[in-house]
Predict the structure.
Amino acid sequence: MTKLTRLVVLISGNGSNLQAILDACVSGELPASVVSVISNKADAYGLTRARNAGVEAIYFAKRENESRRDYDARLADEVTSKQADYIILAGWMRILSSSFLSSFPNRVINLHPALPGTFPGTHAIQRAFESYQRGEITHTGVMVHLVPDEGVDNGPVLATEIVPIHKDDTLESLETRVHQAEHCILVETLKTIISNTKT
Ligand code: GAR
Protein backbone atom coordinates (compact mmCIF):
# COMPACT_ATOMS: atom_id res chain seq x y z
CA MET A 1 0.00 0.00 0.00
CA THR A 2 1.28 3.49 -0.81
CA LYS A 3 2.04 5.71 2.15
CA LEU A 4 -0.54 8.43 2.74
CA THR A 5 0.68 12.01 2.58
CA ARG A 6 0.49 13.60 6.02
CA LEU A 7 -1.33 16.92 6.21
CA VAL A 8 -1.59 19.38 9.08
CA VAL A 9 -4.40 21.89 8.52
CA LEU A 10 -4.34 25.29 10.21
CA ILE A 11 -7.70 27.03 10.63
CA SER A 12 -9.27 29.98 12.40
CA GLY A 13 -12.97 29.49 11.78
CA ASN A 14 -15.74 27.51 10.13
CA GLY A 15 -13.50 24.96 8.46
CA SER A 16 -15.59 24.24 5.35
CA ASN A 17 -12.38 23.87 3.36
CA LEU A 18 -10.98 21.58 6.03
CA GLN A 19 -14.18 19.56 5.62
CA ALA A 20 -13.58 19.29 1.87
CA ILE A 21 -10.10 17.90 2.59
CA LEU A 22 -11.37 15.49 5.25
CA ASP A 23 -14.11 14.22 2.92
CA ALA A 24 -11.65 13.76 0.05
CA CYS A 25 -9.33 11.77 2.36
CA VAL A 26 -12.19 9.53 3.48
CA SER A 27 -13.48 8.93 -0.06
CA GLY A 28 -9.96 8.10 -1.23
CA GLU A 29 -9.96 10.95 -3.75
CA LEU A 30 -6.98 12.35 -1.88
CA PRO A 31 -4.29 9.82 -0.95
CA ALA A 32 -3.65 11.75 2.24
CA SER A 33 -4.43 11.81 5.92
CA VAL A 34 -5.11 14.86 8.07
CA VAL A 35 -2.95 14.12 11.09
CA SER A 36 -3.82 17.25 13.04
CA VAL A 37 -6.00 20.35 12.86
CA ILE A 38 -4.71 23.40 14.69
CA SER A 39 -6.65 26.57 15.38
CA ASN A 40 -5.58 29.89 16.85
CA LYS A 41 -9.22 30.45 17.88
CA ALA A 42 -10.81 28.39 20.68
CA ASP A 43 -14.30 28.56 19.19
CA ALA A 44 -13.38 27.67 15.60
CA TYR A 45 -16.06 25.28 14.32
CA GLY A 46 -13.38 23.53 12.29
CA LEU A 47 -12.10 22.00 15.55
CA THR A 48 -15.48 20.29 15.95
CA ARG A 49 -15.32 19.10 12.35
CA ALA A 50 -11.91 17.58 13.07
CA ARG A 51 -13.11 15.81 16.22
CA ASN A 52 -16.19 14.52 14.38
CA ALA A 53 -13.84 13.01 11.81
CA GLY A 54 -11.71 11.42 14.54
CA VAL A 55 -8.82 13.78 13.84
CA GLU A 56 -6.72 15.44 16.53
CA ALA A 57 -7.96 18.99 17.14
CA ILE A 58 -5.71 21.49 18.91
CA TYR A 59 -6.51 25.00 20.09
CA PHE A 60 -3.09 26.61 19.99
CA ALA A 61 -3.47 29.64 22.25
CA LYS A 62 -1.20 32.65 22.27
CA ARG A 63 0.36 33.13 25.69
CA GLU A 64 0.11 36.41 27.52
CA ASN A 65 2.65 38.91 26.17
CA GLU A 66 4.03 36.31 23.77
CA SER A 67 5.65 37.87 20.68
CA ARG A 68 4.63 36.80 17.18
CA ARG A 69 8.04 35.22 16.66
CA ASP A 70 7.83 33.21 19.88
CA TYR A 71 4.29 32.02 19.12
CA ASP A 72 5.33 31.06 15.60
CA ALA A 73 8.40 29.19 16.83
CA ARG A 74 6.28 27.26 19.31
CA LEU A 75 3.73 26.54 16.57
CA ALA A 76 6.55 25.31 14.31
CA ASP A 77 7.66 22.88 17.04
CA GLU A 78 4.09 21.61 17.42
CA VAL A 79 3.67 21.11 13.66
CA THR A 80 7.11 19.52 13.34
CA SER A 81 6.09 16.93 15.92
CA LYS A 82 3.28 15.84 13.57
CA GLN A 83 5.76 14.91 10.83
CA ALA A 84 3.63 16.62 8.21
CA ASP A 85 4.47 16.52 4.54
CA TYR A 86 2.40 19.66 3.92
CA ILE A 87 0.84 22.35 6.06
CA ILE A 88 -2.42 23.70 4.67
CA LEU A 89 -3.67 27.15 5.64
CA ALA A 90 -7.42 26.73 5.19
CA GLY A 91 -8.85 29.93 6.58
CA TRP A 92 -5.90 30.53 8.92
CA MET A 93 -6.26 34.25 9.58
CA ARG A 94 -2.92 35.02 11.19
CA ILE A 95 0.25 36.12 9.42
CA LEU A 96 3.06 33.59 9.82
CA SER A 97 6.56 34.93 10.27
CA SER A 98 9.82 33.35 9.19
CA SER A 99 10.18 31.76 12.62
CA PHE A 100 7.43 29.40 11.46
CA LEU A 101 7.93 29.38 7.69
CA SER A 102 11.68 28.70 7.73
CA SER A 103 10.96 25.24 9.18
CA PHE A 104 8.79 24.22 6.22
CA PRO A 105 10.20 25.57 2.93
CA ASN A 106 7.87 24.86 -0.02
CA ARG A 107 5.53 22.96 2.26
CA VAL A 108 3.11 25.65 3.43
CA ILE A 109 0.10 26.07 1.15
CA ASN A 110 -2.47 28.86 1.46
CA LEU A 111 -5.96 29.22 0.05
CA HIS A 112 -7.33 32.70 -0.64
CA PRO A 113 -10.76 33.72 -1.95
CA ALA A 114 -9.47 36.11 -4.61
CA LEU A 115 -7.18 36.13 -7.62
CA PRO A 116 -3.40 36.75 -7.28
CA GLY A 117 -2.63 40.32 -6.35
CA THR A 118 -6.24 41.22 -5.55
CA PHE A 119 -7.93 41.74 -2.19
CA PRO A 120 -5.27 40.30 0.14
CA GLY A 121 -6.16 39.89 3.80
CA THR A 122 -9.58 39.64 5.39
CA HIS A 123 -13.07 40.07 3.86
CA ALA A 124 -11.76 39.46 0.33
CA ILE A 125 -15.13 38.33 -1.04
CA GLN A 126 -16.95 41.32 0.39
CA ARG A 127 -14.33 43.70 -1.00
CA ALA A 128 -14.58 42.04 -4.42
CA PHE A 129 -18.37 42.35 -4.32
CA GLU A 130 -18.15 46.05 -3.46
CA SER A 131 -15.57 46.58 -6.18
CA TYR A 132 -17.94 44.90 -8.69
CA GLN A 133 -20.77 47.18 -7.57
CA ARG A 134 -18.54 50.19 -8.26
CA GLY A 135 -17.97 48.83 -11.77
CA GLU A 136 -14.25 48.18 -11.18
CA ILE A 137 -14.19 44.41 -11.81
CA THR A 138 -16.34 41.92 -13.71
CA HIS A 139 -15.28 38.77 -11.86
CA THR A 140 -13.30 37.56 -8.92
CA GLY A 141 -11.71 34.19 -8.22
CA VAL A 142 -9.84 31.90 -5.90
CA MET A 143 -6.22 30.83 -5.64
CA VAL A 144 -3.93 28.35 -3.98
CA HIS A 145 -0.32 29.37 -3.47
CA LEU A 146 2.86 28.53 -1.60
CA VAL A 147 3.75 30.72 1.35
CA PRO A 148 7.45 31.59 1.16
CA ASP A 149 7.43 34.62 3.46
CA GLU A 150 5.30 37.03 5.46
CA GLY A 151 3.65 38.54 2.38
CA VAL A 152 -0.12 38.46 2.89
CA ASP A 153 -1.91 36.05 0.52
CA ASN A 154 1.04 36.26 -1.84
CA GLY A 155 3.52 33.68 -3.12
CA PRO A 156 4.17 31.26 -5.98
CA VAL A 157 0.76 30.45 -7.45
CA LEU A 158 -0.21 26.78 -7.68
CA ALA A 159 -3.73 27.21 -9.09
CA THR A 160 -6.33 29.85 -9.81
CA GLU A 161 -9.93 29.80 -10.89
CA ILE A 162 -12.11 32.66 -12.05
CA VAL A 163 -15.45 33.04 -10.29
CA PRO A 164 -18.02 35.11 -12.19
CA ILE A 165 -20.08 37.78 -10.44
CA HIS A 166 -23.66 38.07 -11.66
CA LYS A 167 -25.85 41.17 -11.79
CA ASP A 168 -28.38 39.65 -9.39
CA ASP A 169 -25.76 38.39 -6.92
CA THR A 170 -25.99 39.24 -3.26
CA LEU A 171 -22.90 39.04 -1.08
CA GLU A 172 -24.27 35.73 0.23
CA SER A 173 -24.77 34.19 -3.23
CA LEU A 174 -21.29 35.28 -4.29
CA GLU A 175 -19.81 33.87 -1.08
CA THR A 176 -21.51 30.53 -1.76
CA ARG A 177 -20.11 30.42 -5.32
CA VAL A 178 -16.59 31.37 -4.15
CA HIS A 179 -16.60 28.76 -1.38
CA GLN A 180 -17.76 26.04 -3.80
CA ALA A 181 -14.87 26.96 -6.09
CA GLU A 182 -12.46 26.90 -3.13
CA HIS A 183 -13.50 23.45 -1.98
CA CYS A 184 -12.79 22.06 -5.47
CA ILE A 185 -9.57 23.93 -6.25
CA LEU A 186 -8.02 23.10 -2.88
CA VAL A 187 -8.63 19.36 -3.18
CA GLU A 188 -7.60 19.33 -6.87
CA THR A 189 -4.38 21.22 -6.15
CA LEU A 190 -3.46 18.92 -3.27
CA LYS A 191 -4.14 15.93 -5.52
CA THR A 192 -1.76 17.32 -8.15
CA ILE A 193 0.96 18.15 -5.63
CA ILE A 194 0.73 14.72 -4.01
CA SER A 195 0.83 12.87 -7.32
CA ASN A 196 3.79 14.99 -8.50
CA THR A 197 5.63 14.30 -5.25
CA LYS A 198 5.14 10.57 -5.63
CA THR A 199 6.37 10.30 -9.23
C1 GAR B 1 -11.94 30.81 3.03
O1 GAR B 1 -12.70 31.59 2.14
C2 GAR B 1 -10.46 31.06 2.82
O2 GAR B 1 -10.08 31.23 1.49
C3 GAR B 1 -10.30 32.36 3.59
O3 GAR B 1 -11.01 32.11 4.77
C4 GAR B 1 -12.14 31.31 4.45
C5 GAR B 1 -12.22 30.17 5.43
O4 GAR B 1 -13.41 29.45 5.25
N1 GAR B 1 -8.91 32.67 3.79
C6 GAR B 1 -8.45 33.92 3.71
O5 GAR B 1 -9.17 34.89 3.54
C7 GAR B 1 -6.97 34.05 3.86
N2 GAR B 1 -6.58 35.40 3.69
P1 GAR B 1 -13.59 28.04 5.95
O6 GAR B 1 -13.16 28.23 7.40
O7 GAR B 1 -15.05 27.73 5.81
O8 GAR B 1 -12.71 27.06 5.23
Observations:
- The domain at 5-198 is CATH 3.40.50.170 (Rossmann fold).
- The radius of gyration is 17 Å.
